[in-house]
Design goal:
Layout: H1 8-77, H2 83-110, H3 117-136
Helix pairs in contact: 1-2, 1-3
Length: 137
């Protein structure tokens, strides 16, 4: 009999498996989405670190060349009259630049956004939602 509804006993026996299938599908979907978010954030973090490293390395190299040529220019210009003063000023400029760069690097490290903040936020939202559903059951 194709048109007859299933008996109440059959409907009750299928119900747990239907719920479990739906729960497994929901969990799989949530996990897939969270892994995609994590992957995107990991890629963004890697790009950010690579760009910061390359920009920092280039800045340090250019600053070193610039300061070296500036120091050599000062030493050559004052070679006959103030040799020691020229070397002292050049050393002070190099040390000052190193300290300024070090302070900037420490501040940039401390103020960097927390890695994977969006993923952690979504996982906390999921946990809260599951807790609310569990408390309501």
């Amino acid at each position: 009999m194709a048109g007859t509804p299933p008996s109440p006993d059959a409907a009750q026996s299928e119900r747990p498996t239907t719920v479990l299938r739906r729960l497994a599908a929901d969990f799989t979907s949530l996990l897939r989405i969270r892994l995609e978010i994590f992957g995107l954030e990991a890629q963004e973090q890697a790009q950010r670190w690579a760009a910061l490293f390359l920009a920092g390395w280039a800045a340090v190299q250019l600053m070193c060349f610039g300061l070296l040529f500036l120091a050599l220019t000062a030493v050559v210009a004052w070679w006959d009259t103030h040799r020691v003063l020229a070397f002292g000023i050049a050393a002070a400029v190099f040390v000052g630049a190193a300290v300024a760069l070090g302070v900037w690097a420490v501040q940039a490290w401390r103020n960097a956004p927390a890695p994977f903040a969006v993923t952690r936020g979504e996982l906390q939202t999921d946990a809260q939602w599951l807790d609310d559903r569990g408390a309501g059951a």
